[in-house]
Design a protein that fits this description.
single chain, three-stranded antiparallel beta sheet, alpha+beta, four-stranded antiparallel beta sheet, about 150 residues, elongated, PH-domain like
């Protein structure tokens, strides 16, 4: 039986702590009201319990997972519990400058996509773009050598 190649993360980029604090505050508010309505046995407690649980799982997930991970042949941005996106370096031709909103990727077929970096730690934005650009350049050198 053939073993699959295991993806080993090379770089991690952290989330903005302000985003985590905001989610903690929202979770705390929902949890407080849910608990207070459960104590007085009010039916609204069951309605408030659903968003409280959803925000609690989302907050724990945000605290435990990095914003972006770079692997040898791809990178992944983990914005929320339900939205993870992969970009493969062999499909990318170039990465342009970083702005407050993010950076743009030009694919091999000259299609341009804007990558939002909302939620990443401010000090990591430029280093994230540089690391992506470095691995894109490596994949271009390997691709042209073939």
């Amino acid at each position: 039986m053939k073993k699959q190649k295991e993806d080993i993360p090379l770089h991690y980029f952290e989330r903005n702590p302000l985003i985590i604090v905001i989610f903690l505050a929202i979770t705390s508010v929902f949890s407080y009201f849910t608990y207070s309505y459960f104590v007085i046995v009010h039916p609204l407690a069951f309605v408030l319990a659903v968003p409280a649980v959803i925000f609690a799982f989302q907050t724990m997930w945000l605290m435990l997972n990095p914003y972006a991970v770079i692997y040898e042949d791809k990178f992944e941005i983990k914005r929320t519990l339900l939205s993870n996106k992969f970009w493969y370096f062999i499909d990318i031709k170039e990465v342009s400058g970083v702005t407050k909103e993010g950076f743009t990727i030009t694919y091999n077929d000259d299609e341009v996509e804007s990558v939002s970096t909302f939620g990443i730690r401010s000090s990591h934005k430029a280093s994230f773009r540089d690391a992506v650009n470095k691995y894109v350049c490596k994949s271009l050198v390997v691709d042209r050598a073939d």
